[in-house]
Hints:
The chain is an alpha/beta fold. It contains ten helices and ten strands.
Amino acid sequence: MIRLDKGAARWTLTLDRSDKANSLTRDMMESLDAHVAGAAEAGIRVLVLTGAGRVFSAGADLEEARAGLATDAVWERLSARIAALPCLTVAALNGTLAGGAFGMALACDLRVAVEGARFFYPVMKLGFLPQPSDPGRMVALMGPARAKLVLAGGAKLTAAEALAFGLVDRVTAADGLTAEVDALAADAEAGKADVLGAIKRLCTP
Length: 205
């Protein structure tokens, strides 16, 4: 359910459970975590996270969420591993981003979304706290009031609102997503890994 496409300088991880809106099971989370760990060892310069179909991810699989996945440490472990990668990380959001799936997107360096995407994180309604690092990363991108708008107010943002708020960095038509990611990845793929790592460190508060 996680598809890995390897290139010389870029790996792409695709959430491939489109019949279930790419909702995430424990096995999928563990697979993602293992692949990201492998990316750190492989010395690639770009890692892209995307989804199959028309939704990036609806968050945790509902049955597994009720069984404990919603509060499992694997979410935080994965987002921390993504954030620590020395390569450029891009969330290519092919559709709606919801719930716990926010963590991996927030941990990426860049987020590109298609025009029809929606963004919501309904922890208030469901009675869960967000994963520990997600609010801080959301505040860094959007500010505290807008983070509370999503997390406590249950707001569902359009792609245009997400762009205006700073949650995403680019919005494109669905058929332009690949080209947009290619353009953003080109310099990192062609450049030196040590320079890329240094730029990321210089941009870290």
